[in-house]
């Protein structure tokens, strides 16, 4: 198949005037996990288990009511609490698919340990904070999610620009509400300090 004159000219310009972008490794990020449960004791147990798998925890959010949606009420009960943790050691962004598989296994283990409670005693939502965005993992595919491997999809849930976090059309109501911004900004600041070799404490 022959190329037309416009295509040939385009190839010449690319070859002489532009350099093809070279592949680079994934950026370092701060792995986080959102935890939902109706039991403070289960929250404590989940945090301990997460620390054993992902390493030392450096930022822990307050526990606040998870009350902007009733999505989980049927399987988890009412009066749910939400808490976040982040993990001290920055790691490669390609950790997210594996992290979701680990948290799914932890959820199943905690459900076995608490058979007399709700059908799902805890919900674990891993993600990561990068300087420009928050990415969450999901096992469900939608138009705005990208497949990461192992049955896991990634979603850009918030973007950071002009000094603050901004939601997107698909952002979950609780993330769009701004109530998690203190935690996310603290984690982002830690990541920036660690990237410059500064002691984040």
Write the layout of secondary structure elements.
Elements: H1 5-17, E1 28-37, H2 40-54, E2 57-60, E3 64-65, H3 73-76, E4 81-87, E5 91-92, H4 96-113, E6 123-130, E7 133-138, E8 146-149, E9 152-161, E10 164-167, H5 173-176, H6 181-195
Antiparallel strand pairs: 1-4, 1-5, 1-6, 2-4, 3-4, 6-7, 7-9, 8-9, 9-10
Helix pairs in contact: 2-4
How would you describe this structure to a colleague?
The chain is 34% helix and 28% strand. By secondary structure, the chain is an alpha+beta fold. It has a single domain, classed as Alpha-Beta Plaits (2-Layer Sandwich), CATH 3.30.70.260. Strands 1, 2, 3, 4, 5, 6, 7, 8, 9 and 10 form a ten-stranded antiparallel beta sheet that branches. Helix 2 crosses helix 4. The longest helix has 18 residues. The radius of gyration is 20 Å and the shape is globular. The termini are far apart. The mean pLDDT is 90.
